[in-house]
Design goal:
Blueprint (H helix, E strand, L loop, with lengths): L1 E4 L4 E2 L9 E3 L4 H5 L6 H15 L5 E12 L2 E14 L3 E7 L18 E2 L17 E11 L2 E10 L10 E7 L6 E8 H12 L10 E7 L2 E3 L2 E3 L2 E9 L6 E17 L4 H7 L30
Antiparallel strand pairs: 1-2, 1-7, 3-8, 4-5, 4-16, 5-6, 8-9, 9-10, 10-11, 11-12, 12-15, 13-14, 15-16
Length: 301
């Protein structure tokens, strides 16, 4: 969920994303049977990777710092961020302030005006449950964080639903593990407004601010990538011109990750459909007493 400044108004926000070599997936079932479509195995791999984030034993905590850069001003906020599983409510994330604080806090209540509520949310756009509400395209590749990445564009299909399919964007994907390296995205409402500005005649000041979000996944634990940084940039434009009139930005960084129940490297490779690092042949099920695979009853928090 994105919370961004709109000068006197707080931008509504939420979750979702998109990919250019054409792969049209609401016809996900048909594409799954098309062995000639090069995007199918990539989407399958991305779906497997997304399930790691839904894995019922994945829990972590980290330090989050949000720094806002407005024209002529800079403000910083620090939070303890947690991502846990609750038997009754499912997956939850929340923030606290101070080493002794246990009360969840909404960053907006302490003055943060622009932030992404959940940096890992992009992974879920590539879960099979979202295939029918997005169109994906392969658009070549480029290096990202030292890896020759595949670029995938994602486009939400109307009607847009907050929290499900309301972002346009591009993801840089590790072709070896099908995990996200970097995502750049913009909400559907901002995407539409930017198109209108580009085709309008002006120059006329546009009161709305247009926001784009870039997220890096550089923290690696047992082969699973986690968010390291989010950069949010809001710009105000003149109609008919691509040059921004004003700009404000914020940066969220994540550090000091502490993990609870994260899978072993071998289990992660098995879930991603990769060859085992040790031994010969296919990876086996984990030994008795180790964490259950997805589909088992979720543990108590």
């Amino acid at each position: 969920m994105l919370h961004a400044l709109r000068r006197r108004t707080l931008l509504r926000a939420t979750t979702a994303i998109g990919l250019v070599f054409f792969l049209g997936v609401p016809a996900a079932a048909e594409d799954e049977t098309d062995s000639t479509n090069p995007a199918v195995p990539i989407l399958r791999g991305l779906d497997r990777a997304s399930r790691l984030y839904l894995d019922n034993v994945l829990r972590f905590a980290c330090k989050e710092k949000i720094v806002e850069h407005d024209p002529g001003a800079k403000r910083a906020f620090s939070f303890d961020y947690m991502y846990v599983y609750d038997d009754a409510q499912g997956y939850l994330d929340y923030r606290t302030q101070g080493s002794k604080s246990t009360k969840p806090v909404d960053p907006r209540s302490v003055g943060v005006r622009q932030f992404l509520a959940r940096g890992s949310m992009w992974v879920l756009i590539f879960n099979q449950s979202r295939f029918s509400s997005h169109r994906y395209r392969l658009v070549g590749g480029s290096p990202m964080h030292g890896i020759d990445a595949i670029k995938v564009e994602f486009e939400p299909l109307p009607p847009y639903v907050d929290g499900r399919n309301d972002w346009f964007g591009t993801a840089w994907v590790d072709p070896n593990s099908y995990q996200l390296l970097h995502v750049e995205a913009m909400k559907a409402s901002d995407h539409r407004l930017l198109q209108e500005i580009a085709h309008s005649r002006g120059p006329t000041p546009i009161p709305e601010w247009i926001t784009d979000v870039a997220t890096d996944f550089e923290v690696v634990k047992n082969g699973i990538r986690f968010p390291s940084r989010v950069i949010i940039t809001s710009r105000q434009y003149l109609s008919g011109e691509g040059r921004p009139l004003r700009q404000a930005s914020s940066t969220q960084t994540y550090s000091n990750y502490r993990f609870y129940g994260v899978r072993t490297s071998e289990e992660v490779r098995t879930l991603l459909g990769l060859a085992p690092l040790t031994g010969v042949g296919l990876a086996t099920q984990p030994e008795a007493g180790s964490a259950p695979l997805p589909g088992a009853s979720p543990p108590s928090p």
